[in-house]
Amino acid sequence: MKKCNACGSQVADNYTNCPNCGSPSLVSLNPAPVQPMPQQVPVQPMQGQMMGQQPMMGAPAQGSMPMTFAMVYMVLLGLGAVSNLISLFTNEFSVGTLISVVFAAATVYFLYIRSKVGRILAMIQGVLEAVGGGILVLLGILFMVGFGALAAEVEAFAALGAAFGIVFIVLGALLIAYGVCVFIYFKKRACMYVK
């Protein structure tokens, strides 16, 4: 049933205007049934996550590290440390080689336990590798220039100097790129190393 707001008479539901006064202002007397509100389930924070923080997308489960650049980097660094350790015992004892073995081993260990120290050591090594690559590029340029000067006297020196120079420049550029990638990767992954 509907009720006319103008004259107050009751009208059947199928009318759009009041049949007594012609007013279009009809109000339904049968209110729409109220839908019950669905019960809300409280959201539980993820393990290791505080309330109010956004979950990290693609974050590894607690205690596990996915196979990423960090794992490949740790394997390469560990292999380099083992080879340096072997050369330390087979050749003459060198303090520089011992320092590089200790540095690499410490970096791998601290990265494995996800410590900030490992991340910082990896970034330092990235900078050192980029600097070493720059030195190789400079040596390559010096080879090309130095052997180029000798080429006036002996033609074979020009080809030899160019070959050595190109090899040094390519190796140096690769080392620079690797060092920069290592530095950028570990700089951006600060959230993974919190201990």
Please explain how this structure is put together.
With 195 residues, the protein is mostly helical. It has four helices and three strands, in the order E-E-E-H-H-H-H. The chain has helices at 69-90, 95-112, 116-150, 155-188, and strands spanning 2-4, 10-11, 26-28. Helix 1 (69-90) packs antiparallel against helix 2 (95-112) and helix 2 crosses helix 3. The chain is elongated.
Provide tags for this entry.
single chain; 195 residues; mainly alpha; 3-stranded antiparallel sheet; 56% helix
Task: Itemize the secondary structure elements and their pairings.
Layout: E1 2-4, E2 10-11, E3 26-28, H1 69-90, H2 95-112, H3 116-150, H4 155-188
Antiparallel strand pairs: 1-2, 1-3
Helix content: 55-70%
Which regions have little confidence, pLDDT < 50, spanning 5+ residues? 48-65
Let me know the largest β-sheet: 3 strands, antiparallel
Structural class: mainly alpha
Beta-strand fraction estimate:
under 5%
H/E element order = EEEHHHH
Distance between the termini: 71 Å
Oligomeric grouping of the chains? single chain
Q: Please state the average pLDDT score.
A: 76
